[in-house]
Amino acid sequence: MINLRDRAFLLTLADTGLRVHEACNLRRGDIDWLEGRAVIIGKGNREAVLRFSRRSLRAIKDYLSARAEMDGSSSKALSSLPVFARHDRASGKKVKPISTTTGRGIVNQRVREALGEEAVGTITPHSFRHYFVTTILLASGNLKLAQELARHQNIAVTQRYSHLSDEELDRKYMEIFD
Fold it and tell me: At 173, which CATH number?
């Protein structure tokens, strides 16, 4: 079950641009499963619409399906339960959300497993947000789109993600002037 949770957590970070604390605070009832969206309260207490990829929704559904018995035995309404729950002895039979520390720990553990100890710390939860914005910019070339999807109030923040390689600069230059 922990593997399913961690997979869903990492894919959600990568495909939604959620900040780690926002992912940890996500509740089942926040997600509109038919639309693949959620309304969240983000940074600065601002309400925002979040979009989910099919792969992140599938991973979340797989995890929640494996967790169904645990959720069913909870005395709380399903909609109020966290999407990403703790699975340690200290939480007992209660369904408690993971903390931001746990979220960072998931990233560190999975980086350690995939890339080795020396890579721990080089990839952080914020790296997934960076990946999200960079992917949007590379696919669309649209800075305003990236700003809106990343929920950046200031476009200058989004611009920090727009690193173009020399190869991309050469190719675009030749498209314009050749």
Answer: 1.10.443.10
Annotated catalytic residue, options 46, 94, 126, 144: 126
Q: Looking at 43, 46, 144, 163, which residue is catalytic?
A: 43
Q: Is 126 an active-site residue?
A: yes
pLDDT digits 0-9 by tens, 58-75: 999 999 999 998 888 888
- Give the structural domain span for 128: 2-177
User: In the annotation, is 43 catalytic?
Assistant: yes
Residue 39's beta-bridge partner residues?
Answer: 49
Asked about 152 being catalytic, the answer comes back as yes
pTM, to two decimals: 0.88
Q: How many domains does the chain have?
A: 1
Q: Which residues of 45-64 are buried (b: 16+ CB within 10 A; e: fewer)?
A: eeebebebeeebbebbeebb
- The yes-or-no answer on residue 131 being catalytic is no
Residues in the chain with pLDDT values less than 70: 163-166
